[in-house]
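Study this:
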Amino acid sequence: MFFSISKKENTKFKNHFKVEDIFIDFDDSWEIFKDDNKIKICKGYLEDFSNLNDENDYFSKKGNFCVIQIENSQITIMHQYFRTFPLYIGSFFVSNMPNDEHSQCDEVKADTYLTIEIENFEIKSHKINNDYSIIQTTDYLKEVYDLLIQKFLFLKNSKLDLKLFFSKGVDTGLAMSIMNKLEIPYELILDEHISQCGLYDNILEISKDHYKFTTYKQIHHFDEKCILISGVFGDDAFLREVGQLSIYFRAKKINIYKFLNKDNRNYYYFNRKKLTDYFVDNLKRRVYNGDYVEDICNVMMNNHQHWHINNTLTFTPFQDIEILRMTLGLSDEKLLDQILNCNINIELIKMFDPNVLTIIEKYKNFREGRDG
């Protein structure tokens, strides 16, 4: 789901669409819809099974998509209630893949969408109003269970091949357990599979300087059209992401190393040197006085990890602020247990398919360089 909008054709892309003197360039598997009044260039999916071309209120939707709409002398870049990809703006340039010619780009926050005036390429930013408040639940596990079931039902109707990479971690394990519960057939991927293409080579080069592209060193993608079921954002939705924990520990005045022991699933994870240095230094910082819930939500929103690439659509069910807001409504005791042991994930896997628990690793990062 890579694209570029500029005054100059971007030859790093195979597909091109011109509007007056503006070029819209993009990777494979976008669809173009035209009627008398507007043009929509679309890629991705909506979780409610509706077609991207038929929708109007994109910013309230869940899914993983982008719609570039051309209407009334204006180009609008539309996406779900928070954008799955970073977005950069420069002089006569908007893209989610910066290049050497536009090294001085500014990044646009994820709760913002852009419009571009075709006549003069004037770029305007528009804020999306999102709710960051805690959601109190009467039965957290049941409500998250029901929400995830509804998300995965989207795959029941898929006409594309489904592939699931199993890292032996709790997030891909949870995704696997839901697929098994719903009896949705999929191909299990255990080894790295990367389809070599010019676009991917460009992304790898960019990842050297842009940390938001580093997960593309790990993403699996294929020549044929397919859906890759991903565990990304599991850390974010279930409060295990490092940036979120930094805020949470400061807000709650928690020294995680006072609670950590070798029986904890995340014992080796927290004892990696880069994390011990980070969290020890974090404890020395000034008292946190912000809105920790909103700040933790913003970490997730702007923690772009990966999005669709060429013919591989990435299904990212855990990329949902609603799950995080429910998670933050749990007691401090339950959240500490989750941070140490991933107990929420474990309990959910038990509800979907407990057999998966026999094949996930006991510890996160038990092996050096391993991210579960």
